Fold these 3 entries.
Entry 1:
Amino acid sequence: MMKFRFRRQGTDPQREKIKQELFAFNKTVEHGFPHQPSALAFDPKLQLMAIGTKSGAIKIYGAPGVEFTGLHNDTTAVTQIHFLPGQGRLLSLLDDNTIHLWELVAGPLREVGGVKKEGVVSLQEVNTYSLPGRPGIESCSATRVTVLLLLKSCDLLCVGTEGGGVYFLEVPSLSLKDNQTLLQDQITHSLPDDYRCGKSLGPVEALQEHPQQSGKILIGYSRGLVVLWDLSIRHAEQLFLGKQQLESLVWERSGNLFVCSHNDGGYSVWAVTSGNTCNHQPVSSTIPYGPFPCKAISKILWRTTQAGSPVLLYSGGMPRASYGDRHCLTIQQDKDHVTLDFTSRVIDFFTVHSVEQEREFDEPSALVVLLEEELVVIDLQTPGWPSMPTPYLAPLHSSAITCSCHISSVPPKLWERLVNAGKAQQSRHWPICGGKNLAPPPKQQELLLTGHEDGTVRFWDASGVALTPLYKLSTANVFHTDCDPSDDPQDPSNDPDMQQEEEEWPPFRKVGCFDPYSDDPRLGIQKISLCKYSNKLVVAGTAGQVIVLGLSDERSDHFVDVSVVDLLYDREGFTWKGHDRLEPRSKPAPFPPGFQPLVVVQCLPPASVTAVALHAEWNLIAFGTSHGFGLFDYHRRNAVLARCTLHPNDSLAMEGPLSRVKSLKKSLRQSFRRIRKSRVSGKKRTITTPTSKVQEANAALAEQEEVAPVQRRIEPRSADDSLSGVVRCVCFADTFLRDGTHHGPTLWAGTNSGSVYAYALEVPGVGSGRVCERGGASESSVCVEAVLGKEIQLMHRAPVVSICVLDGRGKPLPDPYEASQDLAIAPDMTNAHSVLIASEEQLKVFSLPKVSAKTKFKLTAHEGCRVRKVAMVVFSSTAQEDYSEHTLVCLTNLGDMHLFSIPALRPQVRYDCIRKEDISGIASCVFTRNGQGFYLISPSEYERFSLSAKVLTEPLCFVQLDRPLDDGTTVQPQANGTHKNQMDESLDLSLAGQTEEPPSCLSSPILDTPLDSPLSCADLTLDSTAELTVEDVRDFLTVDEAENNLKNIKEEEGRSTGILIN
């Protein structure tokens, strides 16, 4: 017997084949706005836009669904981008003074399932160049690039430098043409003596090609001098002797004049006339926001129109004293004058206008402004110049994201009503429309709901590559907030003189939706639950408010009922030291079409809500805080249950999230005490919990099995840990709790101390087969009742992360209404049910109703990982249409995904997904029902990934290119797009080859992002998500973890960049 004790079963080839058909890990697309953008470019021929970031990424966008991504080898900021129009190529300038050439490159054909598919097409770096330093000069600052100009012929790149020289590179070879180099000395000799006066001309600030005469360029120097240079004869044709420091240049379309902007907040118009080599004075010079000192106009554009007056656009120029801190861009045309006021810094901007040579006027149709935190598009053809909502690149972090929720298979009727409710936000014709999205229409509509710090819930269309905003819900108008406008003692609108004076000058207009400041932090949304069949929504917030909302197509003014649930009604000696509750409005409030509040449940004390569950078929909501949990019947406006979970030593739970100084100090102290105590006591520690059938079963199970080599024994946690009463999860289930023959509604709740409470519910009408309607007078007086059925205490007191009841077939119970309306397979009610309880340290299945342990898995690897997120996912096979498996997905604090079969809890696969240092990304992760997921890689970006071999959401697009070959001929390749980061050419080819290996791979290319990629940015604030617990921070405080982190860092330093997939 002994010699077979540790024998392990061999791998089953058939099972391994099924795994390959079910599971595959891919990072597919990034949703949202690029983190820390630094450069902008536009290709008017292909109608494509490119954005560069400070982490060295380049992202190309066209029509919704058309996306490409490239990544420089070095994590250096991209300072400039320039397209080679129509060619699918672009040039990038990095902060390290290197110039890079990128192009869309198609890989070889690949065979998938015996069918030849088109090769992976990706944005790939093909060439690079760095200007050499000038001989005899120690510093390279003289050759530091300040500005790039690509001639219309796309064969010559002009490079302006800090030393005042202009260099010329052949494109695409990026080879220097020494005989063309223009040094500052050559210009200085032709200047009048009174202008020269021994002063340097300064760096080259601007380069612009003549719009009508090729081979002539304007060179603008910092000192103010502008030179019209003829490249063919290498001679200065005209000199414009400006005296004010230059910032930017722009030609008028005819080439008869140009405009330059200056650092004093003004701009000048210069006439270009033949025969006059020296121009001393401009035609006109204007400081639009003078006469007081103004900030520099960093960029200016001049666009002609057939209507007459040109459109002038410029950034900056604000009066220093009064509006020096504003981020503004001005649009002027004749008497129309608007100053766009943004909430973040202007990076760059361009206009979408006619570029055909035969056209006489520019006729700008749109203005695209790249800001530090969002992209703003202005419609220049509509009177008043309104802004256009973006179909993608929406700033997810317009207010900091605090929670998220994903809804699969949204019913068409709900989808239509949401679209109609948000129709005011629907986009007009989107000007950046290059390429064609070839992805088939989604088989089902998907919603991503994000809760925000300002009390809003945003609904996003997550069905495809483009994450499109559908509808925004605000909960602030339900309450009186700290910054309520009605409480403002002085309203400027009451003073017409003051209002008129403010509106006169400058004519500011607030534009953009990024607003990082919350009126009241208590409004923050912490939990969201949506029933897609009954159109009921529950949102819970930071101040203990739980709001039940219903969907309405009409505007409504009504009063919102408020019910108070005191979770400490039977406890004495506890005093809440945190924030006050939000005060509800005493008068009816207006609510626009969409989700409108039906009732507000206010928890007391007003602590942040940590868990919420909605069962619309029973008209019940359950909610939990750090003090306990409650059950509320929103149909009868009746509080059914309030249970306190506080331990007598849980004083920390009374301080609230906004009183963190003392809390953090105390939690750190107790963490170190627990570490010290566990080391001293070792294995002598005993558990002092009362015995029960559950603990006896646990003890028997522990004695019978040996600890596997990949597991370790779990140290029991102390019962007096702070925050032990925090309710981590609540759920409803129709199952067997009282006996094995009668099933009924139940409520389950799990806490931070490993306690699980199960209540049997008496819901009127459920026993007879259906819930009573609101008008039923006979049952209206009958209340829902809750009776404690089971109370489970996990042996090691690990926090309960998730509870899920499994039916007789071992599958999760369907959602409310799914079984009763034949929307899902009815659960098996003939065989015994079981409950799967996932704690931070292990997974365990108990039989019902006896609650005896059936099986468990200790998810504690050598690093001591802890479960952070758990989800039940259905994986479909790529080989068999009708085959699928229910699988448990676990995300740990180390950022890896573990997949288990249920109910046997057999490990299937493990993938490294998120870097373990990225605790904000781990805390923000949300799974979908079909095997995909989202997590924040920056405050403004979601990374989308897939664990399923069949279900992928990835770019599949088409771009028509017009690229010249080396011999001068042109070809028109068709590029199918992918979203893929390229480190270098050799790595690109290897990654493209890897897509052929898995037999379940689809024809669409996939994205591979290294864990140490800058796109997986670690520069995150902990406030970007509210689901961080004290345990998240403790992971990085223990000595063992510190040693492991140091060891891992040393290992990673010696390891080359690669894809970490097991």
Entry 2:
Amino acid sequence: MTDTTDDIAEEISFQSFEDDCKLLGSLFHDVLQREVGIPFMEKIERIRILAQSALNLRLAGIEDTANLLEKQLTSEISKMPLEEALTLARTFTHSLNLMGIADTHHRMHKVLNATQLSRSCDDIFSQLLQSGISPDDLYKTVCKQEVEIVLTAHPTQINRRTLQYKHIRIAHLLDYNSRSDLSHEDRETLIEDLVREITSVWQTDELRRQKPTPVDEARAGLNIVEQSLWKAVPHYLRRVSNSLKKFTGKPLPLTCTPIKFGSWMGGDRDGNPNVTAKVTKEVSLLSRWMAIDLYMREVDSLRFELSTDRCSDRFSRLADEILEKESCEQDSDRGQSNFSNQQSSSLPTQLPARAHLPSCIEFGGSKQPKFEITTTSDYMPPNLQKQNGQGFTKNDSDQPTDDSKEGLTPRGSFSSTSQLLFQRKLFAESQVGKTSFQKLLEPPPLKRASSAPYRIVLGEVKEKLVKTRRLLELLIEGLPCEYDPLNSYETSDQLLEPLLLCYESLQSSGARVLADGRLADLIRRVSTFGMVLVKLDLRQESARHSEALDAITTYLDMGTYSEWDEEKKLDFLTRELKGKRPLVPQSIEVGPDVKEVLDTFRVAAELGSESLGAYVISMASNASDVLAVELLQKDARLAITSEHGKPCPGGTLRVVPLFETVKDLRAAGPVIKQLLSIDWYREHIQKNHNGHQEVMVGYSDSGKDAGRFTAAWELYKAQENVVAACNEYGIKVTLFHGRGGSIGRGGGPTYLAIQSQPPGSVMGSLRSTEQGEMVQAKFGIPQTAVRQLEIYTTAVLLATLKPPQPPREEKWRNLMEEISKISCQHYRSTVYENPEFLSYFHEATPQAELGFLNIGSRPTRRKSSSGIGHLRAIPWVFAWTQTRFVLPAWLGVGAGLKGVSEKGHADDLQSMYKEWPFFQSTIDLIEMVLAKADIHITKHYDEQLVSEERRGLGNELRKELMITEKYVLDISGHEKLLENNKSLKRLIDSRLPYLNAMNMLQVEVLKRLRCDEDNNKLRDALLITINGIAAGMRNTG
């Protein structure tokens, strides 16, 4: 939901975009006439025309008349009864959303119809070969590429998921409407469908009435995978493979995956007490369950498709062995009806959904795909469809659902034979009367493998998947079960084995065209998504680990860990890491916060690296922060291994320090160097993580700490220093970028961001977060998801083989230091040192009311304090975006640029802009933000909401905004903002009539609400204006 996602350089067709806006606007107008009546519609139209006229006059330079019209608009809004204000807010919010839908549709349409897009695989591969890169180097670099996109639950997606789906459906109906072969009857039906969807949108509550739980957030993320990425990934990989074959002569290897996916949803506990060890375990199991369920559906379709009898001798023998085994099991178990001998028929019992369509049609290989939405809950076990508090409902049998001794490990051990027999008895009784009936529905089992060998082998795959899914259901419900490695799947390699055998057999028997269809797509999905869809990262603040170690060392009479100096901490941690005994005694009693930390490490040990990704330490500042996590992780693995009598699954998790504040970013290089100088740690990285160190850099807190410009420069230098430290010890490094959606939190076009990184920081590997509304904007529709994945691939490839230019001369770095110093001083003197700023912030913005949006499970503050320091970066940026000040993205920048320019370096800054990608992207992003800011709107907020003694501060900030705009234009050489991005400028301008009116309405509602704080209807009206302004700005936080 952001303009900054426009990685696709091509402009949309504005004529067709405007035609669609008119169509949707007309249909919405008709719906509203039925819903609210003609008289009120006339009032809404009058307000829109007033806002449009004022805007046109201001653009024409007729300020006085524009001011008069805006005063008239303010007056009319102030006289509105509450019910009318609420309806007006809803109307303009939906109008802005419909314009956004038309925009999304035309970007998608451009992707589908363009013969060759810029930054596509064909485009970049061609450029690289022409620049002298050899085909072999190109091929090897693509095959070795490791990019991971990490989906997070950061609370910036303001639209309810129900409305997101309805918006997607409208976009697909618009796509269908663009077909030239529609009959008159078809078009009339389509219009009726659009009217139904728009009516449904209007009659749907826009507001979330309760906060989502972490499990709710995880399900939303997994739903993006199911609805979009699941379809997009095979087509993205096919596109990469076809381009590689075209330019190098070799296709992408079938199991090669340049991009994978991770998640923080259900694992990010930094400042969020709702994410517990129990929640993490449930979310991980849910993710595995959904992966198995999706694979079952694909195997069903594949069994229907692969009816051929051509196969290799080896494959034929395998099918015979399976038939023989099934026959023996049926003879030995005849008459019994328990779970372990339920066999899948080798022939499909019914036609799978869309199995009659070729694989490409599911995604939309035609340029007019039919869009279908399936609900995840249709495929979920009953207990996953309802939630109780933060997790799932408890089972009626009151079986334990925690990690008590009667509980379960993820590897499926059970504690009581009698419990297991009881469960089997219940299952057998539930099957009475069903077996005979089932035989009437199913075809008789095959007697000879030669008639349908692939169906036989895939039938066994389906059977194992069914048993694996059932095992996971029992684990989720907290019921006893037994894990049989011969009858279920635990790793992706186990699932890949029979699929690759099918592929090799088809290839060798002259059925290559069948092998490269659904089967190849399924193999690529298994290689990409594994058995968990998305590996879950864990994140916790460094101070929480110190508290845990304090409790342990105090209990052992060793002193207080947090009071030791860094040298003593490292000596202690290294000594314990080299030892073979557990550190934490089983008898230790600790407080609830420490217990939660220790429980998290136990869950991590139980799930292992097959289910989990990295352990991220937020607010990391020392080498001991990393070793502390390594020790707690080692201790938990030793304890779990001892209890269960077998090794923990998978390996240890990667421990990733996250450097966020300016102080910590400056220390990042020395900290990594100190870590790698420790023999134990260096050997551990080489042995357990393939000589690979991962380091995360945070954009949000550094920006709130020092301002956007200083944060950008400190991030650049930190990456240089981390790369140099790792190179010194021969360790490979992957940088993990914690980017937000908005520019104030490090957001921006993916391609531009990657291409402006320091040389050597992107060497074929990259991790990056995609947060909140960005997940839906980039990956919510399969077609746009394919395009985004392709952009990630080509940007990383280009940064690896043709790294961006460093500063041409040392003078440029010195100028950056000076700009950064002035900018930071100005920013901090305003935000942290001005005693009036905090009060001004609360008065001039709706920050205090943002918490009622219920868009995230975590609190808006890390700690209970009213200061800016403990306010999270998202509400900080969100609040300023609402008032159109967008202050966090530019404050201090103008002062820095002015200070250096006035010392005679204006020409140097212009040269830096033209020749240094990092500096150019920084200025361009600030220019994009300035184009969305509006001085007149911010002044209106101040005049109506801010106490008179603080309005002077607002005036000073507006002067700073104008100074920033002047120097940004001077450096870029542009006469007007966004002169180099006219498409974006036109899109922004098209939304302004609705957006300006929404801002004025928000001011009026805020005035009333601050005099009547308990008025729930007023609060609803305010929240709807927040939704509408977010839709118009295409940004939240």
Entry 3:
Amino acid sequence: MDEPRKHQVSLRGASAKEISRDALLAKVSQERELRNFTRRATSAALFLQRVWRRHRAVKVVSMQLQQQWLAEMNQNAICWNKMQISRIVLRPFIFFMTFLSTRYQRIETREEDCVKLCFRVLLESINSTDPNENFCSLVTGTTEERKIWIYQSKKLILLCLLILVEVDYTDRGLQDVGVVSLGMRLAVLLTDWKGWKSITERDTQYADAAVKNLIWFIANKESGTYNSIRRYIWKLDPVPTQGASSCRTDDRFLITASALTLALRPFHFRDTAGTGSGVLELQHAAENYFFFLLTIPWFSERLPMVLLPALKHKSVLSSCLRSLLISKDRISKEISEMDRLEIHLQSKKMPQVAWALANIIFLATSSDDGAVSSGKFAPGLDLVAYVRFVIILAENLLACFGKDGQVRFRNQEIQVDVDNQVDPIGMGLLESETTCESLKMSYTDLLKPVCQQSHLLGLLNLEKDISGRMTDTHQSSEAPMSFELLDVAYYYSCMIRIFSALNPVLGSLPVLNMLSFTPGFLSKLWEVLERSLFPGRSHDAKDNSFGNDISKSKDDVSQRKQKWCAKDRGNKWVNVLHKFSGNSPTESSKMNSTGKSSFDRIRDQSSSVWDVEALRRGPVGLSKDMHCLLHLFCAIYSHLLLVLDDIEFYEKQVPFTLEQQRKISSMLNTLVYNAVSGGVSPHNRTLMDSAIQCLHLLYERDCRHQFCPPALWLSPGERNRLPIAVAARTHEVLSATVIPDDASAPSSMAASVITLTPHVFPFEERMAGEVVGPGPGSVEIIIRRGHIVEDGFQQLNALGSRLKSSIHVSFISESGLPEAGLDYGGLSKEFLTDIAKAVFSPEYGLFSQSSSSDRLLIPNTAARFLENGIQMIEFLGRVVGKALYEGILLDYSFSHVFVQKLLGRYSFLDELSTLDPELYRNLMYVKHYDGDVKELSLDFTATEESLGKRHLVELKPGGKDICVTSENKLQYIHAVADYKLNRQILPFSNAFCRGLTDLVSPSWLRLFNASEFNQLLSGGNHDIDIGDLRKNTRYTGGYTEGSRTVKLFWEVVAGFEAIERCMLLKFVTSCSRGPLLGFKHLQPAFTIHKVVCDVPFLATLGGQDVDRLPSASTCYNTLKLPTYKRLGTLREKLLYAINSNAGFELS
């Protein structure tokens, strides 16, 4: 607006700067709010003044009343009657004590004297037999008198609880402890009418009703009884303080016993009152007892040992558990909310549900002397209520740990400050950060009862008793049995996951050890799974001859094991293991002898037979019950497989027959394949981890000693298997999207079908992934025939991954002259095979042969003492990698144990038989030894020989001083096996693997098992298929398949020994093994070229034939065969040529 018009008057008579309507309304509203605020502030100030004046007035009155009360009590040292006690003693006392103590939440010295005086008067009155003098006789009077007594008794109990919490229990507050002792005695007497000496039989009804009213008041949460007792117990040390005075100890014991008596009053009163009354109040008492007391860290450890039987009495613990089950949904919700808040505020603290779980297990199982290792249940305990409520707590605890079953505060130290006051619901774990780890282990000690066999047997006997009662009442027994067994399965499935989360070192080992060796438990789990997953199939031992026929195919190993097992020393162990499956040895042998199906019939069965229909969706389609059973079964059986040797598995067939083993393998194979194909969710992680471990153990055992048909392992992928190239690409994408440091990501998310279950892809598909031929570029080397190893190491070892390029070899003969011929691939093949032959020879010292009948190669432990020994082994890894990279077959196979290391896998005890059968037999002798193992004078050491000297190696720290006993013999056996199979050859396998992976991808190698790796390396069979070779042979130079010389050639080759045929193949192709997939894949193709040699006709009639020898062009896989006329001449010349170790020179 222009400046001259700024103050113009409008035609409406108002200024041009007038306020708008909205602004005017806002201003009015603001003024109105200001007036209202002023009015409220004034009213509040007046109210505060009135409250403060009233407070001061009441305070003055209370102090005056206290002085008058003290004066009257001191002057009238007479026996008070019940009405005088109520009106003269208690009424003013409750008034001024409620104001002076409750308001300030502390008790001064003057109030303490009043409390002592009042409590002594009341105790004397209650102990009086005169009804007129006994204060508690008011309950037998008029209705008004009973109301007065109940009101005053409630106030007295609240005052006693306040004193219990606020008094100083240190040495400085020793005098105050007496006040607490008096108060707790009074509170106990007030809640037990049997201690009132003036009550007669006709008055018990009134007394019982009054006490009932008082006890239900205690049970109510609003009274704060359990909260006060919790705060008191929290101050008690988990371990009794040393050097405490006997007087103080006696008073503290009396106070603790009285406090627990008050806490347990509702349970005992409900137990004696009969049914039909106080159900709701008992429910409140159980909930308060659980939330405020059972969630105290080290609750049982803080209490005197003599008080523990009262806590685990059936009238307390069983009643509490049954009541808690009624409101389990509300309790679970409240626990979850509290723990969620606790973890959010203080992530270093153990959730309170963890302490409730540990305390309940301890009270339900500990013996009277407080031994935490006892697994026996308390007498009269309601086991059904116990199991079901523990499952609820365990599931809530696992929810606090996270969906993946891992502790949310995994990477943080867990602590607690016991000495500081905490919120009544505040939870902690330990006293300080410095002792966190050791006391964290102490928490798991509270759960040790579940690791005892007597604990599990008690639950199994319960299941048996319930099913028996159902049978006696002519009801269906199948459902109760399954339900009760499921309860046990849920119970231990949760415990396994809790132990794994809390103890990263031992994990669930204590629980699995007990479950694995409990007779009949594993077989019961399998029976339920078998009925569900294999409906309609026979459960006998049919097709068992499959295992027998396979055993016959392993003549050497099987016969040795049978001879050894025939001895009596193994019978006891075998009989124990037979109990696990519920079968006797005679039943097992009978099943073996009565099997009617043959190996061939089972081997040729369709893959669909082994594809379990119920598991085709993986864990997604499983019910919660089946999910739990599978997890528990896989966890137990994968643990048991670690200690089962081949004798027990194949010959004695414990804990399962071979037919059952095949069903288990097919179940796991189908589950894992379909789970990984569809993606593993965090919810299914624990199940899949156990299933994958169990599957791998069974598959590795089948690879060493077959018990499953090949179709079983291929079966899950027959219907919807992706091409291996697509599976490999999927794995690359998954690996790229998972953050390596993300601990919350499940382990299976980065895995895929091709890494977890590569066996579902046929061997031919897997091996086609890496054999690609020479890389770009070339490397020229000159090799002396007499120094092939030295020259190769010097010229090729430093190349590393550049060794993928083509190698052009020029040989120098032993006479020092260059050999004829150009290298178009054949000479490089010859070089690789010759250097492998030289270095893998035991005489060279780098590798030795295993003591088994197969005589497979294993690194020589003395190689580290040789010059450049480790470097030479690394170079050998590159040589083998070059052969694998270009598809060149070598004449050597490695030991199963060594290949396991190259593939990044751990070797277990049962694999020792393939490396050192004698040591394996000796360890089995120790395992099955019936006497005292100390008689064998063994310790935890092993002897290693190198360069003629013996070295003592300790299997564990201080092993030479640890004697092997019957208790630790399994540890000794596995320690020896671990040293021989893993630790001893680890430096050599690492060096070899470094060279190998320079040329071959480790991820590709892991697609194969040990046998398949050797097949990749050497082609497996030591003979060639003449029919396949003849079918894929080309003829040049004038030869045809019908030529006379060609017919004579194939007749001669057919008459060769296997080794001679291999030598012929090496002569032509520089490799004695045929291609893995047949001669169809030999490039260039095997070729017979005609070499025309004219012989005069008369010379032919005189028996003369061609004198020229056959020659070869290994670069082109071509045999240059002269036109021989006679069979004998062709055979003689061909044998001479292939044994001359020459090629081009023969031309």
